Amino acid sequence: MKRRWNWNKMRRKAPLFAIMVLAGAAACGGTAGLVARYVHQQSESAAALSNQFYFTSDYLSETGNSYTLAPGTTAITIQLRNYADDYRWSDMDIKYKVSVTGESQSETLEGLSYENTGTLQRADTDTGGTKQNLTISGLKPGTYHVTAESTSPFVQSLRGTFTVQEQDQEVHYSVSDSEGNPYIILRVSTKEYGDGVTINWPAGLIPDSSETVFENVTTYNEATGNYSKGQVTIEAFGRYGSESYRFFKEDTTKTYQTGDFQVTKTAQQ
After folding, report:
1. Which domains, and CATH codes, for the chain?
2. Which positions make up the signal peptide (predicted)?
């Protein structure tokens, strides 16, 4: 005997089945929506935190700065910071590591002394950002590649290249400066050499006109409204002489190094 279908009963059950299918689909869709919203919110949170992350330095940068250091330099001090300026700083601890390599960048150097790991403590809302000094000592003539990399909570690399010049036995010079100083001091000394000395300085510095050697020197550029690089020659410096010269800074936030200057024996005619 053939089984007969009860179409009325099937019609009564169909809406219930459809409702169950739709409910299941809605539940899956709702779960997917919750996951999508969670991922989106997590991404937004990470992006917001990264926007509050600052890992900076006075001499290192993401693009990599290069510096020439005076002969006889045996140590450099680099400042690592967790802020961009007085209004933007990191509200989180920053862990970092430091590496120093030779000219080939794969050469491991011996005889250097420095802390290769550290932590910048989260900034205090009352005092602003924090900073740490990284001193690398044991330098000799040659080229050094310095990398400071934050490892937590975000990864960012700062780089710089420092070249220590070979020792000049006749003319020595060095620069004293730090961020915020209104002027820098250039110190020049000689040993057996007693003839002329030529000083070259970079743009952005204004020689102190109250000093005799600079009284007739001007590097102001009327076209740009800034001070250009300059040069002055001291005819007879004197054997075993030592002098200090002052240069005012156009921009007090900028820091100058010995390598920004060049002091040489004046060419003999």
Report:
1. 48-167 (2.60.40.10), 169-269 (2.60.40)
2. 1-27
